Amino acid sequence: MLFDNFRRRLRQEAQIWQDEGLINAELYQQLAQRYQFNHLETAARDRFVFILIAVGAILLGLGVITFVAANWQAWNREVKLTILLSLFLTTNIAGFSLWRKPTSTRKRRQKVFGEGLLILGALTIGANMALLAQMFHIGGSSYELFVGWGLAVLLMAYSLRLTSLGILSLILLLIAYWTGLWEWYSVRDDLTLGRLVITHFPLVSGLLFVPLAYWCRSQWIFRIAAIAIVISWQFHFKSLQVVSYIDAPPWIAIAAFSLLPALLWSYDDLLFRRTSRLFQPFAQTLALAVLSISFYILSFRWLWEARSVGYQNELRNSSLATWLPLIDVAIFTVLAIWQWWHLLRPKHNQRYQKVVIKNMLIAGLIAIAALIIFIHQVVTPIPAIPIFVFNLLLAVLGFGLICEALELGQRRAFWGGIVLLTLQIISRMLEYDTGLLFKSLVFVLCGAVVIGSGLWFERYLSSLPAASPSETHHS
After folding, report:
1. What residue range is the signal peptide (predicted)?
2. Potential cystine with 149: which of 13, 63, 81, 126 (Cβ 3.0-4.6 Å)?
3. What angle do CA 81, 82, 88 make, to 5 degrees?
4. What is the DSSP string of 68-128?
5. What pTM does this model have?
């Protein structure tokens, strides 16, 4: 979709260039042929048709499942098994036959319809697994059903190279994770496949879906997988508890708040695929978002002053299952060190000279955060110093975003820095005991500064000689 927006804008600009005489008709035709201007409306119409077919396939699948469930008790086992296998094979065979048709204009609708049938076939996998388990009295938790279902759909996504099936598989595994998270916290006796997936969900998401994102060249698979890794990582290590409790091991807090930003910021597509940087911009944007949220949470004084004892650390148990999350930390640490070694390795080009300061700044912010947490947890409790340091780190990050926005002309970076600084000021004002008149003054000043800075930045962008590529990409 992003590429289609680029082609649509390019077609508009090329028409203007041709009208102004900057390019001739022959060059315009070459651009039209290279970027397929004539297929833009067809692609948009096909996306709309695909959405309709996907929604219809989901409703059709729910209808079939409901019909089978309504008559389930009246059928014997042979009839049940025949219906389930027939439904699964019919939808998938028909969908594959239509989907593999050539992508000509007349066959494109059939291809879209075939993909819809494949989605319906993927949905029937879960129904078949649940009903077969009921028929043969196979016990198990609900999250284990979603784990098996998601892995089966993932195999289809790899085999057919379909983004839609990859996203469906990721959604199913996310459902399995959230439904099985409570059992991950409470019961840890058997090492089943489902429990291993829940225990290592950050690592599993990275190993299974990042290669699939490259295979399908899908931004959405990578984005959803990266966000899922970040969220599940925080739930696994209970970030706020490991900072507040004295008995919490310091390496867990350091890993919870520092490892993922380091891993995301140093991520480089060229280390895994030698063609182009498809996902590095989003990975670095997500790293900045994680750092911003972490610094903002760690800047509150209650988190550092409320030191408590009695933290029940699951990792102190002797069972193997309780130590398995350490595997994720070890693998991500080695991967982060390897990525940073490539990132900071001297390169003799102009681009490296421009970004080396930014990389060193991010590395410094992450290192300082890890050092402060380590000193507070291991050496001696110093509640006042972490409060001051993380407020300073949050301010440095906000000003850094604003400086980058001024250099590259990026609206998102500018407003990100303004939001961080404004949120920090308002939070500190509300956190400490201040009068209503002072609160009113702070709100008025923040509002005036936001409006004034926004208007000034827009005038600054209009004064630039031409929009930079970064502004075109980020605005």
Report:
1. none
2. 126
3. 90
4. HHHTTTTS-HHHHHHHHHHHHHHHHHHHHHHHTS---TTTHHHHHHHHHHHHHHHHHHHHH
5. 0.78
Decide: 233 and 256 in contact? Cβ < 8 Å.
yes
- Residues spanned by the domain of 182: 140-237
Considering 177, 207, 237, which residue would you say is the last residue of a domain?
Answer: 237
- d(C-alpha 448, C-alpha 446), whole Å: 5
Distance from the Cα of residue 349 to its chain's centroid: 31
pLDDT in tens, 2-17: 445 556 666 677 777 7
Q: Which residues of the chain have pLDDT under 50?
A: 1-3, 313-321, 467-475
CA-to-CA distance for 168 and 110, rounded, in angstroms? Answer: 21
For residue 444, the cross-strand partners are none
CA distances from 415 to 28, 342, 401 (A): 37, 31, 8
CA-wise closest residue to 174 among 204, 218, 152: 204
Residues 157, 216: contact at Cβ < 8 Å?
A: yes
Query: What is the C-alpha to C-alpha distance for residues 399 and 272, in angstroms, rounded to an integer?
Result: 33
Domain end among 204, 222, 237 = 237
In a domain, 112, yes or no: yes
Total domains in the fold of the chain: 2
Q: Which residues contact 361 (CB under 8 A, 6 or more apart)?
A: 396, 400
